[in-house]
Amino acid sequence: MPDTSPFRERVTRLLRQVDPAIMVLLAAVLADLAVLLPAATDGVGMPLVDLIPLPGILLLAACAVTGRSRPVFAGWSGACVLGANSVLINFTDAPTFSTLLPETSFAECVAGLLLVYYCARSAPAAIAVVTISALVTAEVATAVLRDAGVHILQLAGMGLALLVVAVVPGARARQGIGDGALGTLLRQQWLLVGVLALALFLDASIVLSGPDVDLVMIVPAIAAVVLALRGVNHPFSHAFGISGVIAATTMLALLTRADRYVSLGGVPVAVTASGMVVTALLVRLESPRRAVTAIATLSAAVAIGTVVQIVTFIQPFTHYDRRFQLLQGLAVTAVLLLGISVAIGLFLRARDSERKTTVEAAVAEAQTAERMALARELHDVVAHHVTGIVVQAQAVRIVAEQNPHVVADSLGQIETAGTEALAAMRRLVRSMRGETGDAAAAAGEQPGPGEQATTDLDADLRKLATSAVHGVPVQLDVDVPQGLPQEVARSALRIVQEALTNVSKHATGASAAWATVRGETDAGGPDESGRALLHIRVADDGEPGEPGPLAAVGGYGLVGMRERVELLGGTLTADRHGGGWVVEAWLPLQGDEESQ
């Protein structure tokens, strides 16, 4: 099965870069399509004449998308597209509809706002002023050419308000002023922003097509959207806020006699979408008891509001109650929408649980690996020095019986070894705490062989052979390849160090040890793969029989060596050979993916 993780990562990275403003623009385009497509197929007027503005709308939206990286070019292109589309509409008498600006579609309004924002944010000041002026002129020409029939003061007031809405955030971004928690929320929840924006645009198209009194219904729609966005992380309290908005919507509809939403359950589309969003979030984030309480409150508010508005605004038929028929259909729809919201919430909750389990497993694995690495470091560094102290103390005890005068010199050597062991412990603790080498340098401490990542394996091995085997002479044969990977050099030093320490601890009557570290090609090695290897061999001439004086202590030397070798994909053997003990390791100098 092919590995899809790189594709997943690319998709995730792309989604993280999505601009919420682009999602709002997409929602506006979809809202325009929701208005234009039914109008083009309703059989009124010339066929498909209602779709004449659509190409210009799509081109203007494309200009807005381009404006993120090329604001001046996109601004002038948008002004030309808007003007040309207005001329085409005027010439063909294609019908249009009004939104925030007269005879201007949702996508055209949003695209114009984005173009102004991008110019104010990124373009040079003088050029930005000229480009924004061109966009304003194109909008005025649009109102004139499309026969808006709107008073010039009304157009100027609405246009000025929208201009301020676009220019002020652009100027703040130009000065490097952050957009705060709200901007962060919008960027993180760009998909939610797009869905709720689409619902708001649909509400606007509904109320703009009716009497002016219906415009008040857009207020609770906006309030519900704000509550849904703010309740992304804490949906419980905001669910009751949306319940209050639903109750207020019912009261507002009764007071103004606005009956545009009766067939939709008495609430605006954005309120319904916000309720679904909060319901999904409740199921995802809250405990079952809290989620059920909040969802029941939302459902009760919707049910009461719907029944009240239907009873108030819908008159029954003589032979069949139309109110009951509408209530029956709305009840089925409400149950369906509630089920969809709960299902989405359960899916997100399961995904969160799976992600949490995966993260916990990864953290546990990382902690285990870190503990094992620290255990190996502790064993290799501390056991190496402490073994020397014990061996020297035993030698002093034996020599003191024959020549007490040499005890003072031997005690000095033990003191030196103990000081080195203490310094090694301090360096190891400092490394575990993540401190840099500056603290050690300030304390006058220099790392001993094998205690830090080696930078000269040849020199460190020679120093180790002459100073760290506690009376057993070592014959060293070193031929280290150039460009040895740091992890291989470090492991090689550790393996030699531990093997020589074991000579002192376990070899009975050993008089010499041999250590070989050479680069080889594995033509005749353990797996005959032809890879470049670092061959490590440590042997002694100890006799088989009774173990050394420290063998009873036990330890994890071979275990640690085997773990180091396995982590690098190498091979380790340790056994008696020709009367002595031989430790032999082969470490690959390249990763598997490079050697294949």
UniProtKB/TrEMBL annotation:
Residue ranges occupied by any Signal transduction histidine kinase subgroup 3 dimerisation and phosphoacceptor domain in the UniProt entry: 370-434
Keyword tags: ATP-binding, Kinase, Membrane, Nucleotide-binding, Phosphoprotein, Transferase, Transmembrane, Transmembrane helix, Two-component regulatory system
InterPro entries xrefs: HATPase_C_sf, HATPase_dom, Sensor_HK_TwoCompSys, Sig_transdc_His_kin_sub3_dim/P
Catalytic activity: ATP + protein L-histidine = ADP + protein N-phospho-L-histidine
Region of interest (Disordered), ranges: 435-454
SUPFAM superfamilies linked to this entry: ATPase domain of HSP90 chaperone/DNA topoisomerase II/histidine kinase (SSF55874)
Broad class of enzyme this protein falls into: transferase
Top-rank taxon: Bacteria
Ranges annotated as spanning the membrane: 21-40, 46-65, 72-91, 125-145, 151-169, 190-209, 215-232, 239-255, 261-283, 295-314, 326-348
Protein name: histidine kinase
